[in-house]
Specification:
With about 325 residues, the chain is of the alpha/beta class. The protein contains 11 helices and 11 strands. α4 (about 115-125) crosses α11 (about 295-305). It is globular.
Length: about 325
C-alpha cells in the first residue's frame, strides 16, 4: 500500500474517503481535513506539504501554462459554485444592474482567485460589462489586511489598477460604509446580513439567474481541482486511475446518502424539493467529474484567463489533466 497524504476541505463528496467508508485501490490515503482552502493552496504550492491536495483551478492553469508546474491534476473538482449571488453592492453606489459596475471601486480578496476570474469573465462576456476602468481594492473580507499569503501569485501580462487595502477596516466594513462600491469573491460579507439597509446583492434573485445561466451556457463554475505532486505521479502513474475511481465512488456515495428520504441527512427543511429542482436542471450531471463532462466550463474558464491577461494563449483543455485510462464519470 502506497502511503499518500491528501489535504482537502470537509466536503460531503469527500466524506467516504475522509472516514474510510471506501478503499482506494493500492493506496493508504491519509485525509487531512483543512477548512481553509487558501491555507491548503499556500502550503501545497509554497512547501509541497502534501502528496496531493485540492488546488485553485486558476493557479493550476497558470503553472501549467508556464510549462514547469510541479503538479499534475486529476479531472476531479472538490469545489464548484455559481457566483452570481457573490456579487454584493453598496446601496450608496447607485448600482442597479451589472453594467453600472463600469468604472467603480470594487473589492476582491485576491484579484487572481478563481472565483473572481469567473465573476469578471461572466460580467464581461455574458452581461457586457466594461471592467477596463475599474479600480480593484484587494484585501481580506472580514478583517483588515490581506487574504492569505500566496507564495506564487500569478503575474499579469498587462497592468491592472489594483490597490491593497491598507485601512483598518475589512472589505465587508468598507462596503457597508460606501468606501467601495461593490465586492466580489468566494464568500459573502457579514455586512450583507448585519447591515441589509446598506448592503445588498447585485442580482436580487441569484438562484433563478444562476439556473438560467446554467441552462443557457451549460457552465457549472469549477473552483478547485485535485493536484498531485508531479514526482509522486511520475513514480507511480497507476495512482491516477486508482484515485479517480475512488473520488467517483466517494461522490456517488454522498449523492446516494443525500437522496435517502426515510430520514433527512442535512438540516435543510426543503431538501427533497430542492433535489427535485436540481434533477430538473442538471439531470445526471450533478457535480460531474471528468474532462468531457466539464469541457464547456473549462473552455470558458481558460478563455476568461486569457482575456484577463493571466495566460498568453488558451491551453488545450486535455493538457490540464493526466490521462485516465478506461475510466469515465458515470
Amino acid at each position: 500500500m502506497l502511503k499518500l497524504s491528501f489535504a482537502c476541505g470537509p466536503y460531503d463528496r469527500m466524506e467516504a474517503l475522509q472516514y474510510n467508508r471506501i478503499e482506494v485501490e493500492g493506496i493508504d490515503l491519509k485525509y487531512l481535513e483543512i477548512q481553509s482552502p487558501r491555507e491548503i493552496f499556500d502550503r501545497m504550492v509554497g512547501e509541497m506539504a502534501f502528496d496531493l491536495s485540492e488546488l485553485s483551478l486558476s493557479e493550476h492553469v497558470v503553472m501549467t501554462s508556464r510549462g514547469n508546474s510541479p503538479f499534475v491534476a486529476l479531472p476531479v473538482f472538490p469545489s464548484k459554485a455559481f457566483r452570481h449571488g457573490f456579487i454584493t453592492i453598496s446601496k450608496k453606489s447607485g448600482i442597479k444592474e451589472p453594467k453600472d459596475l463600469a468604472g467603480k471601486r470594487i473589492g476582491v480578496p485576491l484579484y487572481t482567485m478563481t472565483a473572481a476570474i469567473w465573476i469578471r469573465g461572466d460580467l464581461q462576456n455574458v452581461y457586457g460589462v466594461d471592467l477596463s476602468n475599474v479600480q480593484w481594492v484587494q484585501g481580506a473580507v472580514e478583517k483588515a489586511g490581506s487574504h492569505g499569503k500566496p507564495p506564487a501569485v500569478p503575474d499579469l501580462l498587462q497592468p491592472v489598477d489594483i490597490t491593497q487595502n491598507s485601512s483598518d477596516k475589512s472589505l465587508s466594513e468598507m462596503l457597508r460604509d460606501g468606501e467601495i462600491d461593490a465586492l466580489i469573491g468566494s464568500r459573502l460579507p457579514a455586512s450583507l446580513r448585519t447591515d441589509s439597509d446598506k448592503v445588498t446583492r447585485l442580482f436580487p434573485n441569484p438562484r433563478e439567474e444562476e439556473k438560467r445561466y446554467y441552462l443557457e451556457h451549460k457552465i457549472h463554475p469549477i473552483m478547485h481541482t485535485v493536484a498531485i505532486q508531479r514526482k509522486v505521479y511520475e513514480d507511480n502513474k497507476w495512482i491516477a486511475s486508482s484515485l479517480f475511481k475512488a473520488f467517483l465512488e466517494a461522490r456517488n456515495w454522498a449523492i446516494e446518502k443525500m437522496y435517502f428520504s426515510a430520514a433527512q441527512r442535512y438540516m435543510l427543511p426543503w431538501l427533497y424539493d430542492d433535489l427535485h429542482e436540481i434533477d430538473d436542471v442538471f439531470g445526471k450531471d450533478l457535480w460531474a467529474y471528468g474532462v468531457d463532462q466539464n469541457r464547456s466550463t473549462l473552455e470558458a474558464f481558460v478563455k476568461y484567463m486569457k482575456q484577463q491577461h493571466f495566460i498568453e494563449n488558451e491551453l488545450p483543455i486535455d493538457d490540464l489533466f493526466v490521462p485516465i485510462e478506461r475510466l469515465r464519470d458515470q
